Amino acid sequence: MERIQKLQQEARTRENHLMRALNEATLSEASQAGFDTPCAISLEEIRSSIPADTVLVEYFSLSDRQVGCVLSREKLNIRPVTVQSRTRKLLQLLQFQISKFRLDPQYVKTFAESMQASTVAHLRSLYEELVLPIRDLLQGKHLVFLPHGLLHYVPFHALHDGEAYLVDRFEVSYAPSAGVYALCRSKPANSAGGSLIFGIDDAQAPSIREEVEAVSKIVPDARLFIGSEATEKVLRTHGASSRIIHIATHGYFRHDNPMFSSIRLGNSYLSLYDLYHFNLPAELIVLSGCATGLNVVTAGDELIGLERGFLQAGAQSLVLSLWDVHDDSTKEFMIDFHARLQRGGSSTEALRAAMLELRMHWPHPYYWAPFTLIGKG
To answer: Domain range spanning residue 254?
Structure first.
């Protein structure tokens, strides 16, 4: 036991030394080491990347005031929406409701109706703070939300206007910023090539195997690797030429050091730091598992999490989860999402339709709303 504690302390010390070196590195040194460096993109370039039926909704924080910026090909509107202290409190209440699903299943079953009512009430309050002040500006089929600060943790697609969820009225996707959205729209990706499917199941997620076996029969030219076969070497070898990558596993978010947040593979853990040295130029990467979309927001609204790593590795679009997901409902959602995608719909259309279908059987947002589409969309 003493030896394990000593090794853990040594690992943390080395992690801290590495992070200090990265933070102190010059832009040139960071680029040579394989890390992304800032890239300025003009308003004209961003506008030219926006499809005709799409609107970008970006938020900024000015002291405690939150401001909404709505950008289309033709117009730019900026309005104050709410105050940060209010949305922080509402988000905490929403996250508390979601966390109740970690309790005993009998509790969840007994109080299902009241839990759903409370969750929808918080989603409606967030809608009234963040969306209602700019609702008349949202003219289009597809909304791309570009959050700021704590708003990165808000499921905008699940916000409720009193009659319907936002996803009932729009296709919804996300991006870390307008610049990243424009880059995802323009970056090259594998337009041909097969699909790479990983499944790492365990006792807590027994449906993963059934999920990946079903997905491998839907997507084109699938290579399926399960358990110990789903290794980092296989991902590095086949991921570089795959058009679609689907990884069903657990994500582990490191609040103490987000750079070492990871997903579990068959024989190791793949961290954000590792991803910076991968080449995965897929059109779509899906992470079907718990908490794969969690990030920490640092000074300057910089996101550090698996999302950043997969975008840096070359992905055009990502599907990630905002919270710990339910095993059976996730399996249903993923199978339906891929089936719709292969029938010719866009990723945003397929995601929206799969959510609406799942909601008919699993009405609480905990089940149908954890997944977000990030990037090109």
So the answer is: 189-375
The tens digit of pLDDT for each residue in 293-327 reads 454 444 443 445 678 888 889 999 999 988 888 88
Indicate if 316 and 208 belong to the same structural domain: yes
pLDDT digits (tens, 9 = 90+) for 77-86: 999 999 999 9
Clarify whether residues 122 and 220 are in a common domain.
Answer: no
The count of domains in the chain is 2
pTM of the model: 0.88
Does 103 lie in the same domain as 213?
Answer: no
With bands split at pLDDT 50, 70 and 90, how would you rate the model's confidence at 9? Answer: low
- Does residue 51 sit in the same domain as residue 133? yes
In a domain, 37, yes or no: no
Residues 139 and 200 in one domain: no
**Same domain assignment for residues 155 and 214:** no
What is the CATH classification number for the domain harbouring 254? 3.40.50.1460
The residue behind tokens 């069903």 is 248
Contacts of 6 (CB under 8 A, 6+ apart): none
